[in-house]
Structure formats: structure tokens, C-alpha cells
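Work package 3, deliverable 3.1, input record:
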Amino acid sequence: MSGTISNGLSALLAAQRALQTTSNNIANANTAGYVRQRIDFVERPGTPLGRITIGAGVAVADVSRVYDQFLTDNLRSSTSLEQRYVAYGDFATRLDTILGNPDTGVSAAVQRFFNQVEVVGRDPTSIAQRQQLLLEGESLATRFKQLDARLSGLGNEIDGRLEKAADTINQLAGQIADVNDQILASGSAPAPSLLDKRDELLKALGTQIDITTIRQGNGTVNVLVGSGQSLVLGSQEARLTTIPDPLDGRRLQLAVETGGIAQNISSKVNGGIVGGLLAFRNDVLDGAQRDLGQLAVGVADVFNTQHRQGADLNGNLGTDFFGTTSPLVSGASTNSGTATAIFTNAGDLTGRDYELRFNGASWSVLDRQTGAAVTSSGAGTAASPLVFEGVAFTATVASAAGDRYLVRPVANATVDFGVVLDSPTEIAAAAPLVSRIGTGNLSQATIGPPTVTDISNLGPPPVTLAFDTPTSYFVSGVAGGPFAYTSGATISVAGWTVQISGQPATNDVFFIEGTAAGSGDNRNAVALATVAQQGLFAGGTQSVSDLGADIIATVGSTANRARNEIKVQEVLREQAEIDVENISGVNLDEEAANMLRYQQAYLAASKVIGVADSLFQNLLNIVAR
Amino acid sequence: MRVSSSTYQLQWLSALRRQQAELSAIQQQVSSGKRISTAADDPAGAAQGLLLQQGLDRLQNYAGNAQTASRRLGLEEDSLSQATDALNRIRELAIQAANGTQTQESRTAIAAEATELLTGLISTANAQDGEGRYLFAGNAVQTRPFTLAGSVQYNGDSGTRVQRVADGRTVQENDPGSAVFVQIPTGNGSYTVRAGAGNQGTASWSSATVSDPATFVPGTYTVTLTPDPTPPPTPALPDPPTWVASNGAIVTGNLTSITSQGATITLDGTPAVGDTFTVDSSRYQDVFKTVQDFITTLGQTTGSASGRASFQNQLNSNLQNLDQALEHLTNVRSQVGARLATIDQQTESNADVQLELTSSLSGIRDIDYATAISQLELRLTSLEAAQKAYARTQSFSLFDVL
């Protein structure tokens, strides 16, 4: 009889526990990170009665979490990867909005400037149109600076976000270490809620940075970041900090601080928000900013080169229209030497940054981003500068082995870009030389317009070509002669050439003169209008306007790829989430069914007790009689 | 398979989000009319579109350039037409003056009209474009090119300008005054004829040509006429006056010609012994000097027969120079006309290219409304379906029946 009661009691208690577990599942159906719990019953060991053993009821063996470690880890890593692309894609989209809009991007501004060059070519003596060209030049400069400032703004924002992420990571790491501590204290059977909490913390950490977890026998979890630096070791956590790049002070790097030593892990981080931010900065933002700088250098170079080939409204040779820039050299604080760099040829620029290392005897040049070796020549001294890809580098104070420099050729390009001409009359719309036939010439021989071949060695005009016979001539200021004359042949003098055709007569003279002040000549303006289409970069195959189109295509395809990658990662993360949910999530219908089941079990157990009780009462009544 | 209750919601929410994102993208396309709003929408298309847009901008620049060149050439054409009219009138006056019935008074009247025409001609040569730049000053566009100080001086330069009207195609938009009004060859373009200042006879030259270009050598030659010492071959025939030029050519009677070094000059009238005619290489003379020379000739007295011949000789030179000037201006005008035709033709072909580029650009950047609207409908329908499906599945719960 007592066996029946105790069996009934054990069933009653078991059903009670089961109802509690079910109600807890129902209660936490919408709790993030909650892993549904399952109650496991076991038979109680029976009482042997001779040859038979009578069962002794039921006991609760365990309340376990329904859980698959692999799926949970998978969810964490796919969340980490998704967050990487979300962070990356967010910035890529913003970059695309800044540079990728065909109507407001930098190419449109460059085009507007050159449109005004055409207008000046139509009426070269108009001061108003020349003034407008200076203004368009200034607004192009402003556009370059604005765009560069917005890109720098993105860089600063990334720095800020890195700092914030480091804080969040440190906080999470601390909490994980705490939970580890509590689990350690609770011994072999830690509360499911503690395990749920730790998984949730690990997942949150994964959204910030990609982590590796190692489960220890004692129930704790160690967390590694980067290339194996431990962030959480049992109940101890390390600190993540941001440190400035030793060569490039404007950029923060992520480092793990252990024992007072900060170890840079930036290049080892791939996942999470931090991974996305670092990848965007390294692969996209820096490149876009360099492209913008290179475009500024290119526009200034092609325009200045042609502008110097012309003559201005005062009759003077053209000077630089835009200001010029020089490569930015920054050295490590441990360097013993100092150095400078200049451009050798803007057309050789490739849009890369370089790291230079001195081994005590020679320099090696590395692509800053990829680490690939770059071909260079020269010793890096004033007599023999180190020349690579359009840059000449000179160590002004002798370097020692181990000295490192960062050379960023176009880093200052947009800042230095600006119109340096003061007056609209200084715009060189005219060609510098004109030809004229002597008024007393006896023949009808004609002279073509002079062509400047070497502006830097242009002889001083005026020059007179005087024919002493119909077939020979003298050149004023040029020793020797007479020179034999052939009709239509190119006559080459000091930095210019000219052609005379026809049959000159004896004593005929032809004059080559400097363009006078106030000339309406538009030859140089016409030439200036097309310089953006001329090949400059990549061995003369890429024009300034090609580079502008490339910038748009690059930022556009980056944003586009990120957009697609986010879609893919989102699907993968959702699937991982569903996989986890399907194992560990609460199904309310299932719980309802369980509730019915345990309710019936409870009622049945009560009945058992009731039956045992009535049997007992009957027995007592019999005994009492 | 076990499905947790929140899976439904997760799946539905993500489906909803995706549908809404696509809907919003299409909605944005439909409302802006653009398929590409930033490069991310179609990177290759955006880059190509940018180059097409630059091509269109260039065409617009070419159109502006062509308009400017066309306007200036049109003004030049007007000026040249006025100058030609004036010269034609002066030529008429010269022919009128050559008529033997003219008196000193009528010639003075002719000179007065010619002087007026000369003033007009100078002001035509000083024409300005709409922006106040001198058309015929070469590149010295702010300098008045022709000024009268005794003779007419050219103050411009010989600069020419071009405007780009297509890729690799330029059109000259001006002709310097030196090329239009100054560098005009005298005489017949090869040589001039000048009667000796002391000629006593009544001979005047009436035509001067290069009869044999192969043997013509430019230079200065003087022909002195002396009587032929040999007697006439047949004494029975009347004895026409026979002359020998210094180069040995026999000149017989009236309307005869002297040929020397490939040049042939025809003489009218009877020369006196020792009369000379000199042949000079042509050189440049400005049109104003030609007209001034004509006015000077008109002022000459023609009392004697030899004076009459001298007048005729000079008038012949003036006429020849006027003809040269007219021919020269006609040439320049036809060049201007050719350039205007080039511009028109290029403008037309630019318009074709522009149409093509615009439609390519539109194909890349703009949406196709029919497709976009049907896409929009499709998205709306599937969004609605997703919502209904969710509502249906969520309306079932075991708790409802407990």
C-alpha cells in the first residue's frame, strides 16, 4: 500500500516538475538566447520481493538544455560574418553616395571646368569669361577638398567606431569572464540560464569581432581573437585598445593589451563590425582617397603642362594654373634619419602608398597595402635619389638600419589643389609665338604659324628670317648661314619650328614674334580643352577623364558587391538561426501538448494516491470493526 | 522536422524585409525615372554612362564653338560682300573714267565718289563682331586694324584662330586683314607693266599675260622700242611702222604684242623712239592703295596725246589691280562659304551623334516604365500573399482549443 502511495507521490512530484519545466519553456518562448529545457524521467530502483521486483515509481533525472554546440557556433560565426558585411556595406554605400553619383561626383566637376575652358577659347580676350574660368577652377578645387574631407570624415568615423567597438568588446569580455567564474563556482551542474547567458554574450561578442572559442573541461570557455591572442582566459580578460599606426598617425589600429604590451591585430581581424570597418578602410576607403588624390594631381599636371605652353593676355608665357603638390613622407618615431620626396613624373603615379625600409645598405620599397615589393632604383641620396613609380625619395639626414618611412604620393594632392593664378589676364589662351611677313617683301611666299617644340628652351623673340638669295636665308641671332631653303621644309630654331612655302625673293624677310599683349589668339585654349582626354597614367593609356570614370566604377562595384554579399550572408545567418531555433527554440503547440500530458499524469498520480488512500481507509475500517 | 514557433516569425519577417527592400528599390526607380541613381546600382553602366555624358558635354561644347565660329564667319561674309560691292562699283567707275569723252570735271566727280567708297571700304575692313572684337585684325582683336594716315596702315597681326567643331576637326573662324585686304598681288598676279615716265608716243599697253609659264622667269625687264633698221621686205607694200624691242622682238603696227621671257604684252597706239615698257614681278599691294592709286590717276591731266596714253597706261594698271583685289576677295569669300558649309554639315552630323548618345545614355540610366510598373505590381502581390500566409499560419494554436 505504502508502495502505491509513494509511487503515486513520485509521479505527482515528477508531473509537477514537468509542468514547471513546460511553463518555464512557455514563459521564455520569446526570450532571446533561451534554450528550451527538457525534463528527463528515470525509474526509481524497484524493491526486490523474492523472484520479482516491484517498481518504485519515477524520479526526475535531469532538466537539460536541448542544444547543439555545432549549430550554435555556426550561428555565431555567420552572425559575425554578416555583421562584417553590414558594416562594410554601410560604409561602401555612403562612399558610393559621395563619389558614385554621376551628376554630383568629381567627374562632373572636372567636366564643368573644362566646359568653361571651351568658352574661353571662343572669346579669349573676354575678361569676364576668363574670370569665370578662375572661379570654375576654384570650385573644382573646393569640390576636390570637400570630397576628400568627406572621405577623411568616413575615416575618422571608422576610428571612432573602432574605439567604441573596443569598449563594447572589453565589456563583453569582462561579462564572459564573470560568467565563467560563476560557472566554475557552481561546480559540475551549472544553471542552464548561466549557459544561455554565456552563449548570448559570445554571440554579441561575435557581432563585434570574429572569435575562436575553446571549451575547457571545467565548463569555462576561453575566447581568442586575431591570430590567437586570448581575450578571455577562464575568469581573466585581456583588454582591447586602439593605438595609432606607427607610420600613419591618422589611422587607429586595434591591439590586444597583455602585460602592458599592445599587440597590433588589425590585419588578423576578419569578422564582425570591426573586421568590416578595417577591411573597408584598408581595401576601399584608402584606395578611393588615393584615386581622388591622383585625379587631382592628374588634372593639375595635364592642365599646367599645356598652360605653360601658352601665352597670357599680357603677352607673357603661361605659368602654372593650379598649385602643385609633393609626396607626403612620414617616418617612424624610431628613425634616426629624415627624408623628403618629390615627383619625377605625374604620369607614372599608380595610386599606391609605399613603405620604405632601410637595411643599413639599401632601401626596399613595399606596397603599403599588399606588402608586395616595388621596383626601385637609386641609393636614396641627394646624388642618387631612390626613384619608384613617379616618386624620387631622398634621405636628407643619413638613415640607420631599421629606419622606416611611409610615402603617400598623393596624400596632400586635394589639399594643395587650387588655382594659383591671381589675375584672369594670366590665363594663357594664346600660343606664345606668331609669324609675320615683311611688308616690303617682293615675293608671295607665305609663312605658317610657328609651333613650339620646347617651351623651356624657347629662344627670345623676335627672330628675323632674311633671304639673301631666293634659295638661302639667314636667321637673326643664330650663328652661321646662309641656310639652304626648300619650300615647305620645317625650319627649326630655338625651341620652335616654322614652315615657309613658295618662292621667296632676295631681301624678303619673315618675322617670328612673341604674342603681343591683348591677343585674341585661342590656340592654347583649344589645346587646353582636350587635355583631360589625353592619355597620362598607366603608360599613357589612361586619361584623366578615364580615371574619373574608373573611380565611379570602382566605388560603385564595391558597394554593389557588398550589397549582394549582405544578401547572401543574411540568408546564411537566417538559416543558421532557424537551424538553432528548430533545435533549441520553443514550439508552443508542443508545449501545449506536453502540458496536457503532464496535467493528465498529475491527475492520474493524484488518483493513484486517492485509490491507495481509499484502500487504506477500507482496511482501517475493517481493522477498526 | 521540428519547427519552433519563432521560426515562423523569423522566416516571415525576413521574407517581408526582402520583399519590402525590393519594393522600395523599384518604387524609387519608378518615382525618379532612373535605373541608376548611384554607381552601385550598375557600376559598369554608371562608368559607361559617365563617358557618354562626357561625350554629350563635348558635343554641346562643339555646338557652342560652331555657333561662335558660324556667327563670326557670317559677319566676315557680310563684310566681304560689302567690300566686293564697293570694289565692283569702283571698277565700274574706272571703266567709266577710261571713256575718252570724260572731261576733267567728270573725272573729278568720279574721284569724289571713289573717295567715298574708299572710306566705306576702310570702315568695312574695320568691322567688329558682336563682342566688339575686330574681325580683320588677326589676333590683335582689340586693335583697330586699318588706319588712314596718308596711306592705309595695317595694325593687326597675321594670326588665325580655329574652333573645334568635332573630335579632331577644327574650322578656321577668322581671316586676318593682312591676308584679306593687304596681301593682294599686283598686276596680273605674276608681273606688272609700267610705261616709261618719259614716253613720248601714244602707245599704251592693253593686256599683259603669261603666255608661256614654262619660260616665264619673274624679274624686272625693260623693253625699249627703236625703229627697225631693215627695210620692209616688199617696197611695193605700204610701209607700216615697224619697231624692234631691246630684246630683238619685232613689233609691227597697231595692236601688236611683245613676247619676252614667256610674258606677252599687247600695245595700242604708236610708240616714239626710245619709249620703254618695264615688266616687274608682282608684289603685294593692299586694296586701299589700289583705290588710292586709281583716285590719283583720275587727277592726272590728259591734254596731250602722250598724256592721254600715260593716263590710259595707269588706268590699265589700276584696273588690273582692282581685278586682282576682286578676285582675291572672291576667293576669300568662297573659303568662308566653304567653312560655313563645313560647320553646318558638322553640326548636322553632331546632332545625329547626339541623338544616338542620348538614346544610349537613356538606355543605360533610365528605367523602362512598362517593365518597372509590372515589377512593382508583382512585388505588391507577393508582399500581400506573404502577409496573408502569415496571418493564416499564426491563427492556429493548440492553446485555442484548450
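Chain A touches chain B through 79 residues (CB under 8 Å).
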